[in-house]
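Kindly review this record before class:
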Amino acid sequence: MSDATVPVQDATESRTRHVLRTTFASWPAKLSLVVLTLALACAIAPSLIAPRDAFLQDLSLRLLPPAWEPRGQALYWLGTDQLGRDTVARIIHGARITLLVSVLAVVVSAVIGIAAGLAAGFYRGLTDAIILRLIDMQLAFPLILLVIAVVAVVGPSLTNLVIVMGLSGWPRFARIVRGSVLTVRHLEFVDAARAIGASQFRMMAHHILPNIMSAIIVYASFEVARMILLEATLSFLGLGVQPPTPTWGGMISEGRRYVNQSWTVAIAPGIAIAAVILAFNILGDALRDALDPQLEDRT
Protein backbone atom coordinates (compact mmCIF):
# COMPACT_ATOMS: atom_id res chain seq x y z
CA MET A 1 0.00 0.00 0.00
CA SER A 2 1.41 3.39 -1.03
CA ASP A 3 1.76 6.29 1.38
CA ALA A 4 -0.76 8.29 -0.67
CA THR A 5 -3.46 5.66 -0.11
CA VAL A 6 -3.21 5.71 3.69
CA PRO A 7 -4.26 9.35 4.21
CA VAL A 8 -7.20 8.88 1.84
CA GLN A 9 -8.41 5.83 3.77
CA ASP A 10 -7.88 7.62 7.10
CA ALA A 11 -9.87 10.60 5.86
CA THR A 12 -12.69 8.33 4.68
CA GLU A 13 -12.81 6.49 8.01
CA SER A 14 -12.70 9.79 9.89
CA ARG A 15 -15.56 11.15 7.77
CA THR A 16 -17.60 7.97 8.37
CA ARG A 17 -17.05 8.18 12.13
CA HIS A 18 -18.01 11.84 12.09
CA VAL A 19 -21.24 11.14 10.17
CA LEU A 20 -22.20 8.30 12.53
CA ARG A 21 -21.40 10.36 15.61
CA THR A 22 -23.36 13.35 14.31
CA THR A 23 -26.30 11.22 13.17
CA PHE A 24 -26.81 9.54 16.53
CA ALA A 25 -25.88 12.47 18.75
CA SER A 26 -29.46 13.23 19.84
CA TRP A 27 -31.62 10.95 21.96
CA PRO A 28 -34.44 10.72 19.36
CA ALA A 29 -31.94 9.39 16.82
CA LYS A 30 -30.61 6.87 19.34
CA LEU A 31 -34.14 5.78 20.16
CA SER A 32 -34.94 5.40 16.46
CA LEU A 33 -31.85 3.21 16.09
CA VAL A 34 -33.10 0.97 18.90
CA VAL A 35 -36.55 0.69 17.29
CA LEU A 36 -35.14 -0.09 13.84
CA THR A 37 -32.65 -2.60 15.26
CA LEU A 38 -35.48 -4.40 17.06
CA ALA A 39 -37.65 -4.37 13.92
CA LEU A 40 -34.74 -5.69 11.83
CA ALA A 41 -34.09 -8.48 14.34
CA CYS A 42 -37.77 -9.45 14.17
CA ALA A 43 -37.62 -9.49 10.38
CA ILE A 44 -34.45 -11.61 10.26
CA ALA A 45 -35.25 -14.19 12.94
CA PRO A 46 -38.92 -13.98 13.96
CA SER A 47 -39.09 -17.61 15.04
CA LEU A 48 -36.30 -17.07 17.57
CA ILE A 49 -37.87 -13.94 19.06
CA ALA A 50 -41.58 -14.76 18.99
CA PRO A 51 -42.83 -16.33 22.24
CA ARG A 52 -44.88 -18.94 20.32
CA ASP A 53 -46.03 -20.05 16.88
CA ALA A 54 -47.71 -17.19 15.04
CA PHE A 55 -49.89 -19.61 13.05
CA LEU A 56 -51.09 -21.77 15.96
CA GLN A 57 -54.87 -21.48 16.39
CA ASP A 58 -56.82 -22.13 19.58
CA LEU A 59 -60.45 -21.02 19.45
CA SER A 60 -60.81 -21.51 23.20
CA LEU A 61 -58.41 -18.55 23.60
CA ARG A 62 -59.90 -16.28 20.93
CA LEU A 63 -59.98 -12.51 21.49
CA LEU A 64 -58.17 -12.53 24.82
CA PRO A 65 -57.48 -8.99 26.08
CA PRO A 66 -53.90 -7.95 26.95
CA ALA A 67 -52.28 -9.52 30.01
CA TRP A 68 -52.82 -6.49 32.28
CA GLU A 69 -56.59 -6.53 31.89
CA PRO A 70 -58.81 -8.70 34.15
CA ARG A 71 -59.53 -11.42 31.56
CA GLY A 72 -56.00 -11.41 30.20
CA GLN A 73 -53.46 -14.22 30.53
CA ALA A 74 -49.81 -13.68 31.40
CA LEU A 75 -48.63 -15.87 28.51
CA TYR A 76 -50.35 -13.62 25.97
CA TRP A 77 -48.98 -10.12 26.57
CA LEU A 78 -51.13 -8.42 23.93
CA GLY A 79 -53.93 -10.96 23.86
CA THR A 80 -55.06 -13.04 20.90
CA ASP A 81 -56.95 -12.53 17.66
CA GLN A 82 -60.25 -13.96 16.45
CA LEU A 83 -58.64 -17.38 15.83
CA GLY A 84 -56.79 -17.55 19.12
CA ARG A 85 -53.40 -16.70 17.61
CA ASP A 86 -50.89 -14.77 19.74
CA THR A 87 -50.88 -11.09 18.77
CA VAL A 88 -47.26 -10.52 19.83
CA ALA A 89 -46.05 -13.45 17.74
CA ARG A 90 -47.96 -12.25 14.70
CA ILE A 91 -46.61 -8.71 15.02
CA ILE A 92 -43.08 -10.08 15.21
CA HIS A 93 -43.60 -12.30 12.16
CA GLY A 94 -45.36 -9.47 10.33
CA ALA A 95 -42.22 -7.36 10.53
CA ARG A 96 -40.52 -9.67 8.01
CA ILE A 97 -43.02 -9.13 5.18
CA THR A 98 -43.50 -5.43 5.88
CA LEU A 99 -39.78 -4.59 5.96
CA LEU A 100 -38.83 -7.02 3.18
CA VAL A 101 -41.40 -5.65 0.75
CA SER A 102 -40.67 -2.02 1.65
CA VAL A 103 -36.88 -2.26 1.43
CA LEU A 104 -36.93 -4.25 -1.82
CA ALA A 105 -39.41 -1.78 -3.32
CA VAL A 106 -37.08 1.10 -2.43
CA VAL A 107 -34.17 -0.77 -4.04
CA VAL A 108 -36.18 -1.20 -7.25
CA SER A 109 -37.20 2.47 -7.17
CA ALA A 110 -33.65 3.61 -6.51
CA VAL A 111 -32.07 1.56 -9.31
CA ILE A 112 -34.54 2.80 -11.92
CA GLY A 113 -34.68 6.35 -10.57
CA ILE A 114 -30.91 6.78 -10.27
CA ALA A 115 -30.34 5.54 -13.81
CA ALA A 116 -33.07 7.80 -15.21
CA GLY A 117 -31.98 10.81 -13.16
CA LEU A 118 -28.33 10.44 -14.16
CA ALA A 119 -29.25 10.20 -17.83
CA ALA A 120 -31.63 13.17 -17.66
CA GLY A 121 -29.25 15.44 -15.76
CA PHE A 122 -26.10 14.50 -17.66
CA TYR A 123 -27.31 14.32 -21.27
CA ARG A 124 -30.04 17.00 -21.05
CA GLY A 125 -31.78 17.80 -24.35
CA LEU A 126 -34.17 15.21 -25.77
CA THR A 127 -33.23 12.57 -23.17
CA ASP A 128 -34.06 14.96 -20.34
CA ALA A 129 -37.35 15.99 -21.97
CA ILE A 130 -38.52 12.39 -22.49
CA ILE A 131 -37.67 11.32 -18.93
CA LEU A 132 -39.35 14.40 -17.45
CA ARG A 133 -42.51 13.73 -19.45
CA LEU A 134 -42.56 10.13 -18.21
CA ILE A 135 -42.18 11.38 -14.66
CA ASP A 136 -44.99 13.91 -15.10
CA MET A 137 -47.27 11.28 -16.63
CA GLN A 138 -46.84 8.88 -13.71
CA LEU A 139 -47.11 11.58 -11.05
CA ALA A 140 -50.32 12.84 -12.68
CA PHE A 141 -52.14 9.73 -11.42
CA PRO A 142 -52.97 9.43 -7.70
CA LEU A 143 -50.32 7.03 -6.41
CA ILE A 144 -52.51 4.82 -4.24
CA LEU A 145 -55.16 4.44 -6.93
CA LEU A 146 -52.51 3.59 -9.52
CA VAL A 147 -50.91 0.93 -7.31
CA ILE A 148 -54.29 -0.54 -6.32
CA ALA A 149 -55.34 -0.78 -9.98
CA VAL A 150 -52.10 -2.47 -11.07
CA VAL A 151 -52.02 -4.91 -8.12
CA ALA A 152 -55.67 -5.80 -8.76
CA VAL A 153 -54.80 -6.65 -12.38
CA VAL A 154 -51.52 -8.57 -11.88
CA GLY A 155 -52.63 -10.25 -8.65
CA PRO A 156 -51.53 -9.91 -5.01
CA SER A 157 -48.23 -11.73 -4.44
CA LEU A 158 -44.90 -10.86 -2.83
CA THR A 159 -43.09 -10.47 -6.15
CA ASN A 160 -45.84 -8.44 -7.80
CA LEU A 161 -46.12 -6.22 -4.74
CA VAL A 162 -42.39 -5.42 -4.75
CA ILE A 163 -42.35 -4.69 -8.49
CA VAL A 164 -45.48 -2.51 -8.48
CA MET A 165 -44.43 -0.55 -5.39
CA GLY A 166 -40.91 -0.16 -6.79
CA LEU A 167 -42.18 1.14 -10.11
CA SER A 168 -44.42 3.60 -8.29
CA GLY A 169 -41.49 5.29 -6.53
CA TRP A 170 -38.84 5.78 -9.22
CA PRO A 171 -40.00 9.27 -10.39
CA ARG A 172 -39.15 10.83 -7.03
CA PHE A 173 -35.69 9.29 -7.04
CA ALA A 174 -35.19 10.44 -10.64
CA ARG A 175 -36.13 14.03 -9.80
CA ILE A 176 -33.78 14.20 -6.82
CA VAL A 177 -30.89 12.62 -8.75
CA ARG A 178 -31.48 14.85 -11.79
CA GLY A 179 -31.41 17.99 -9.64
CA SER A 180 -28.23 16.87 -7.90
CA VAL A 181 -26.55 16.01 -11.22
CA LEU A 182 -27.39 19.45 -12.61
CA THR A 183 -25.63 20.93 -9.58
CA VAL A 184 -22.37 19.01 -9.92
CA ARG A 185 -22.05 18.27 -13.66
CA HIS A 186 -20.08 21.47 -14.36
CA LEU A 187 -17.88 21.44 -11.27
CA GLU A 188 -14.11 21.29 -11.59
CA PHE A 189 -13.62 17.59 -10.90
CA VAL A 190 -16.09 16.65 -13.66
CA ASP A 191 -14.41 19.03 -16.11
CA ALA A 192 -11.04 17.53 -15.17
CA ALA A 193 -12.32 14.00 -15.82
CA ARG A 194 -13.71 15.12 -19.17
CA ALA A 195 -10.39 16.80 -20.05
CA ILE A 196 -8.35 13.64 -19.50
CA GLY A 197 -10.67 11.68 -21.81
CA ALA A 198 -12.90 9.83 -19.31
CA SER A 199 -15.92 8.22 -20.92
CA GLN A 200 -19.39 9.51 -20.18
CA PHE A 201 -20.24 6.34 -18.26
CA ARG A 202 -17.11 6.69 -16.14
CA MET A 203 -17.86 10.34 -15.39
CA MET A 204 -21.38 9.44 -14.24
CA ALA A 205 -20.46 6.29 -12.30
CA HIS A 206 -17.12 7.30 -10.76
CA HIS A 207 -17.27 11.09 -10.45
CA ILE A 208 -20.89 12.30 -10.32
CA LEU A 209 -22.74 9.46 -8.57
CA PRO A 210 -20.41 9.21 -5.50
CA ASN A 211 -20.80 12.96 -4.95
CA ILE A 212 -24.61 12.85 -4.87
CA MET A 213 -24.97 9.68 -2.80
CA SER A 214 -25.65 11.63 0.40
CA ALA A 215 -28.87 13.03 -1.08
CA ILE A 216 -29.87 9.57 -2.31
CA ILE A 217 -29.22 7.94 1.07
CA VAL A 218 -31.22 10.55 2.94
CA TYR A 219 -34.18 10.31 0.58
CA ALA A 220 -34.07 6.49 0.62
CA SER A 221 -34.56 6.52 4.41
CA PHE A 222 -37.71 8.62 4.01
CA GLU A 223 -38.85 6.47 1.09
CA VAL A 224 -38.67 3.27 3.16
CA ALA A 225 -41.09 4.87 5.63
CA ARG A 226 -43.44 5.78 2.79
CA MET A 227 -43.27 2.26 1.34
CA ILE A 228 -44.09 0.75 4.75
CA LEU A 229 -47.24 2.86 4.85
CA LEU A 230 -48.10 1.95 1.25
CA GLU A 231 -47.61 -1.78 1.92
CA ALA A 232 -49.76 -1.55 5.04
CA THR A 233 -52.47 0.22 3.04
CA LEU A 234 -52.46 -2.45 0.33
CA SER A 235 -52.52 -5.25 2.91
CA PHE A 236 -55.39 -3.53 4.72
CA LEU A 237 -57.34 -3.48 1.44
CA GLY A 238 -56.59 -7.16 0.81
CA LEU A 239 -54.16 -6.47 -2.06
CA GLY A 240 -50.96 -7.32 -0.22
CA VAL A 241 -49.46 -10.67 0.78
CA GLN A 242 -52.41 -12.94 1.45
CA PRO A 243 -53.36 -14.69 4.75
CA PRO A 244 -52.40 -16.66 6.71
CA THR A 245 -49.02 -14.90 6.30
CA PRO A 246 -49.13 -12.10 8.89
CA THR A 247 -48.62 -8.50 7.80
CA TRP A 248 -49.21 -5.42 9.92
CA GLY A 249 -51.73 -3.92 7.51
CA GLY A 250 -53.53 -7.25 7.18
CA MET A 251 -53.71 -7.60 10.97
CA ILE A 252 -55.38 -4.20 11.24
CA SER A 253 -57.87 -5.18 8.55
CA GLU A 254 -58.73 -8.47 10.26
CA GLY A 255 -58.83 -7.02 13.76
CA ARG A 256 -60.90 -3.90 13.13
CA ARG A 257 -64.10 -5.96 13.42
CA TYR A 258 -63.17 -7.11 16.91
CA VAL A 259 -61.88 -3.90 18.50
CA ASN A 260 -64.73 -3.90 21.04
CA GLN A 261 -63.77 -7.38 22.29
CA SER A 262 -59.96 -7.03 22.15
CA TRP A 263 -58.62 -3.61 21.12
CA THR A 264 -55.00 -4.78 20.79
CA VAL A 265 -55.83 -6.95 17.76
CA ALA A 266 -55.95 -3.86 15.54
CA ILE A 267 -54.27 -1.16 17.63
CA ALA A 268 -51.02 -3.02 18.38
CA PRO A 269 -49.94 -3.54 14.73
CA GLY A 270 -50.93 0.07 14.05
CA ILE A 271 -48.59 1.20 16.81
CA ALA A 272 -45.83 -0.97 15.29
CA ILE A 273 -46.32 0.70 11.89
CA ALA A 274 -46.29 4.18 13.43
CA ALA A 275 -43.18 3.46 15.52
CA VAL A 276 -41.14 2.13 12.59
CA ILE A 277 -42.24 4.93 10.23
CA LEU A 278 -41.40 7.55 12.86
CA ALA A 279 -38.02 5.92 13.46
CA PHE A 280 -37.15 6.03 9.75
CA ASN A 281 -38.23 9.68 9.52
CA ILE A 282 -36.13 10.65 12.53
CA LEU A 283 -33.19 8.75 11.08
CA GLY A 284 -33.66 10.54 7.74
CA ASP A 285 -33.64 13.94 9.46
CA ALA A 286 -30.50 13.03 11.40
CA LEU A 287 -28.75 11.76 8.27
CA ARG A 288 -29.66 14.93 6.38
CA ASP A 289 -28.15 17.08 9.14
CA ALA A 290 -25.00 14.93 9.27
CA LEU A 291 -24.43 14.72 5.51
CA ASP A 292 -25.35 18.28 4.52
CA PRO A 293 -22.10 20.32 4.48
CA GLN A 294 -24.01 23.62 4.45
CA LEU A 295 -25.76 22.77 7.72
CA GLU A 296 -22.43 21.66 9.12
CA ASP A 297 -20.80 24.97 8.16
CA ARG A 298 -23.55 26.99 9.83
CA THR A 299 -23.11 25.05 13.06
